[in-house]
Amino acid sequence: MSAAQRIDGKAEAARVLDSLRDDVERLREQGCAPCLAVVLVGDDPASDVYVRNKVLRARETGIESVEHRLPANTSEDTLLTLIAALNADPAVHGILVQMPLPAGLDEHAVIDAIAPAKDVDGFHPANVGQLVLGDATLAPCTPNGCLHLLRQVAGDLSGKHAVVVGRSNIVGKPMAALLLQANCSVTVVHSRSTNAAALCRQADIVVAAVGRPRLLDAGWIKPGAIVIDVGINRIEIDGQPKLVGDVDFDSVAPVAGAITPVPGGVGPMTIAFLMKNTIAAAVRQQAMRDAIAA
Ligand code: NDP
After folding, report:
1. In the predicted model, what is the mean pLDDT of the chain?
2. How far apart are CA 162 and CA 148, in angstroms?
3. Out of 23, 118, 119, 121, which one is annotated catalytic?
4. 174 contacts: CB under 8 Å, gap ≥ 6
5. Which of 98, 181, 222, 276 is catalytic?
6. Has domain 141-268 been given CATH number 3.40.50.720?
7. What's the pTM?
8. Which residue among 8, 129, 131, 244 sits deepest, i.e. has the most Cβ atoms within 10 Å of its Cβ?
9. Is 167 known to sit in a ligand binding site?
10. Distances from the Cα of 19 to the Cαs of 25, 138, 162, in angstroms?
11. Is 98 a residue of the active site?
12. Residue 1: pLDDT above 60?
């Protein structure tokens, strides 16, 4: 049986969302109704579920949401024109374009087109730069949610050795930047690393963002380490569809000190931090408007 503390991301996300409702209320009293625009291009079923969940959580938190669903054959010009309109709309505070985009659309061009102040995913180069400088206002939601869980479990992270498995722009790299900012010693391993498991075994904290079902087993984990599993992999077991992480939970749980499950770990935190970013964006835009009006 599992010896590790099971980190309940669902419960923690609910607490974060609860605290945000008060912030939304305060903003509304000041005449600002925070609003998130969600853009979905194409009909990828997983993206559809993510978008529906985001819109639902926004409504539950008191955040307005507008959905823009475009067909898979949408041209880049059409998409960029929509983003320009959302950038210019003072009633919209956050813009999220659900990734991945259908083939033929340039994700970089789309991300670059979003006004940095409304980039609630934190993917725009200006926000990535702020993050690396240690001064992020809009940090990417998944790694920020992971950091929150780590702080809940371990408190001050100073001096801990963290290994991040994966170096994507949306999870691995920003995770490493946030852990560095939290005073961890950070190692990043990736597909070209020759000794990934051995490096992981040295870690007090392991964050797995690989996209390989159950890649990390007990042999990768130091006894007592905190393990955050970002992976969402859809596989079939005995003919049944199943969602599993990048960590082999059953193998790692007896060794780790604490571990996030999949589902119910990082996923709900990502959405909670998207709402947090939307409110942060609304607060800043409102403050800027107040300053101009004064
Ligand atoms: P990417 O495919 O963009 O990146 C995967 C990374 O893993 C790459 O850096 C790759 O290395 C590295 N990698 C691949 N194989 C190995 C290996 N054998 N050993 C070590 N490193 C390896 O994935 P994402 O970062 O976008 O997503 C990772 C996982 O997280 C996915 O399962 C995704 O679904 C999930 N996810 C979950 C979210 C949530 O809210 N819970 C949000 C976002 C993602 P290289 O760079 O060398 O190719």
Report:
1. 97
2. 15
3. 121
4. 122, 128, 131, 139, 140, 143, 144
5. 98
6. yes
7. 0.97
8. 131
9. yes
10. 10, 18, 29
11. yes
12. no
Please tell me whether 166 is known to bind a ligand: yes
Distance 234 CA to ligand 1 centre (A): 14
Q: Where are the domains of the chain?
A: 31-115, 141-268
Does residue 122 contact residue 251 with C-beta atoms inside 8 Å?
A: no
pLDDT at residue number 3: 83
Ligand 1 atom closest to the Cα of residue 171 is 25
31-115 is a CATH 2.40.40.10 domain: no
Strand partners, 135: none
Closest CA to ligand 1's atom 1: 168
Is residue 18 annotated as a catalytic residue, yes or no?
A: no
**31-115 and 141-268 agree in CATH topology:** yes
Give the span between the Cα atoms of 7 and 14, in whole angstroms: 13
**What is the mean predicted confidence (pLDDT) over 135-156?**
97
Residue 232 marked in a binding site: yes
Residue 17 near residue 268, CB atoms below 8 Å? no
pLDDT in tens, 236-257: 999 999 999 999 999 999 999 9
Q: How far is CA 127 from CA 58, 89, 91, 120, 197, in A?
A: 22, 20, 21, 10, 32
Q: Would you state the structure tokens that stand for residue 258, as one six-digit string?
A: 């604490």
Q: Which residues line ligand 1 (CB under 6 A)?
A: 142, 165-168, 170-172, 189-193, 196, 209-212, 215, 230-233, 266-267, 270
